[in-house]
Design goal:
The chain is mainly α and 122 residues long. The protein has one domain. Helices cover 77% and strands 5% of the residues. Helix 2 packs across helix 5. It is globular. InterPro entries: Phage_holin_4_2 (IPR007165).
């Protein structure tokens, strides 16, 4: 899958999470601006998952094994919060309020991205 397709898949998955949860917000004056914000955040999310997440998962590997993989849910939620903070620093209108919302949002994002990735991979 190409880079552009991955960014679009991330943007659609983030849009689904923002649509489902009130504490995940995408700001913009019109739908076009919100779509551009989601594409930018999708790129940031992809970079965070490509650069930061593997290091965190490697360092926490013993705890991941100890918790039978449940710690991966927490790590994914933290990556979503980190993406939100980076997006805010870059001036993108994307915020995630609260760890619980981030946890549920990361589950939705993972499921939607997996489905879209499987559909678009063919």
């Amino acid at each position: 899958m190409g880079l552009l397709v991955r960014v679009i898949v991330n943007a659609l998955a983030l849009a689904a999470a923002a649509w489902l949860f009130d504490d995940i917000r995408v700001r913009g004056d019109d739908p076009g601006q919100q779509a551009l914000t989601l594409v930018g955040v999708g790129l940031v999310f992809g970079l965070v998952n490509a650069l930061v997440a593997p290091v965190v998962k490697l360092l926490s590997l013993p705890f991941i094994v100890l918790t039978l993989g449940l710690l991966l849910l927490v790590i994914n939620a933290v990556m979503l919060i980190l993406t939100s903070r980076i997006a805010e620093a870059l001036g993108l209108g994307f915020t995630v309020d609260g760890f619980g919302t981030a946890l549920l949002g990361s589950i939705v994002i993972s499921v939607v991205a997996a489905i879209l990735g499987a559909v678009l991979d063919d």
